[in-house]
Amino acid sequence: MAYTEPYSVDWDALPNVAMPFMNTVHSDELALVTRLLASLNNAAAPASIDAQISAWVEHTQVHFAREEHLMQEYNFFAAPCHQGEHEQALLQLLGVQQQWLRERDTAALLDYIQHWREWLQQHISTMDFVTAQFLSSFNIQVEL
Ligand SMILES: [Fe+2]
């Protein structure tokens, strides 16, 4: 399945949002996927790729759940819309993980990673941007 051309904008340039903890989580996630990308390009052992994908899935679940919890706690008006994007993205990532475990198709995984990187840019600059703007009007301390 072909998603996109390789991500053409600066891979490391994530949009900043008004809640610092969110920026930290986003750059941690990007670092994790950047390592996975390097491992794939260096033909690392499948077990190492498996572990890195699991860590990515886990990081994503915690990342989304944290944002969703805050949206609910503070009654963010666009919570269902934001949460809907999370659900779709997580389902896709879980599907890609299953496909990797079944087929060990490096090209398909590399392709998905490019798609994910575009998704992340789009998601942060829309959903996360507005959510962070909203949350920043409260005095919220988040421990990561
Ligand atoms: Fe989000």
From TrEMBL:
Protein family (similarity comment): Belongs to the hemerythrin family.
Recorded superkingdom: Bacteria
Hemerythrin-like domain mapped to chain residues: 27-130
NCBIfam families: hemeryth_dom
Organism: Thiothrix fructosivorans
The protein's name: Hemerythrin family protein
UniProt keyword annotation of Ligase present: no
Signal peptide: none
Keywords linked to the UniProt accession: Iron, Metal-binding, Oxygen transport, Plasmid, Transport
One Pfam assignment: Hemerythrin
